[in-house]
Amino acid sequence: MTDDPRSDEEIRVNRLVRIGEAPRNRRELVTKLVWVVPWLVFLASPFHDLLTGHDSAAVTAAGAAGLTAFVVIYLTIVFRNMGRPFSTATVICLVAVLEVLAVVLGATLGGDWLGLFVYVSVCCGITFPIRLAHWCIPVNTAALLLVGLVAGQEDAWGLFLVVLMVGYSMSGVRQLINTTVELRKARATVAQLAANEERLRMARDLHDLLGHSLSLITLKSELAGRMLPDHPEQAARQVTDIEQVSRQALVDVREAVTGYRRARLADELVGTQVALTAAGVTPRFPAGPDLTGVPEESESALAWALREAVTNVVRHSGARRCTVELLRRQTLDGPVLELTVEDDGSGGSGDGPGNGLTGLTERLAAAGGTLEAGRSASGFRLVARVPADRPAHVGSGA
User: Fold this and answer.
1) What angle do CA 71, 76, 80 make, to 5 degrees?
2) How does DSSP classify residue 26?
3) pTM of this prediction?
4) N- to C-terminal Cα distance for the chain?
5) What angle do CA 230, 232, 235 make, to 5 degrees?
6) Residues in contact with 148: Cβ distance below 8 Å, sequence separation at least 6, in sequence order
7) What pLDDT, on the 0 to 100 scale, is given for residue 13?
């Protein structure tokens, strides 16, 4: 069995049928067909009218041809609108043809054909601009009533609300689809801007950290090279200065890299909540935590504990709910920050602690904290505690 290099989130997103976009493969095409085909239920009456044979052969053939043309145009508009839609002028012409066919077929063949006006309203709602759709849908509804009155069909009043409401409903669905597409684009843009901003911040920090140091090293290296033949003692002092500047630059870079790699509890709360939701687990998370005065080592240790606990919930527990609590407690050893992660799953299949929990125990111990993990009444429970303030330095004063 080969491991898929893609993340679980990426695989889940790729399996979704993208709203408002063209199908990427046969599976998505079938899925979209499943959503479109049930709307053809209003064609049952025209088909039944053709099959009963009440009219002459010529009228039946003309009705079948008109119905075929109507269905082909309607499906063309709907499926083309999912990918690269026609221009507004083309869509208006096609919908006008549908309107003419609905009027002619409904007026000549009877009330069984009035359901065609429903599809005209659908096309108006999903393809026309909002303002144009809000005018065309009532006009189409009025055409339905007019055809019903001229043909003496009382069924037109029964379809009045259906034609009107379906059109406006499709208009609302179209607005929702457009909003979803815009949000998807906006999210991608925000992610790209955030990545660019992070790269710029790293570039600024590295420039501020290393720019002066490297310039000084370059200058002193040139001085040492000039002094080396005639003044070896002064050149040696320059080399000593170069060593000190280099060591300080190395310390600054290590501190900067440590800051970039340090896990933040607030960021982990957001990320793990998204991970649980994507895995189908209902999350219950605390509000924004108050980390005032909490040492960075304690915050980082709790962030790693939260990441490890939620990873176990997603991969091994089979849970449906996961509750995260973050509390400050006063103990005999001083104030502590307590993180509790509890789920209603099985807690995995291992008999003992895994490598993740073992490493997590060591990480918490290095920060002065403790870890408790085991089965609870409702599932599995993990409790991590770290000091909530820095240890006091005891002096030797009187």
Assistant:
1) 155
2) H
3) 0.47
4) 70
5) 110
6) 106, 111, 114, 154, 155, 156, 157
7) 44
**Which of 9-23, 40-54, 185-199, 299-313 is predicted least confidently?**
9-23
Residue count (the chain):
398
Region for residue 140 given its phi and psi (left: phi exceeds 0; alpha: psi -120 to 50; beta: otherwise)? alpha
Alpha carbon 206 to its chain centroid, in Å, reads 32
Per-residue pLDDT, averaged over 319-346, amounts to 87
The beta strands (E) that lie in the chain are given as 282-284, 321-331, 334-343, 370-375, 380-387
pLDDT at 12 over 50: no
Strands 334-343 and 370-375, sheet pairing: unpaired
| CB within 8 Å of 134: residues ≥ 6 apart | 168, 171
Report the relative pairing of strands 334-343 and 321-331 from DSSP bridges: antiparallel
Helix then strand then coil, in percent of the chain rounded to 5, is 70, 10, 20
AA letter at 42: F
Q: What is the mean pLDDT of residues 189-211?
A: 78
H-run or E-run covering 195: helix 155-227
Structure-token pair, residue 46: 């025209």
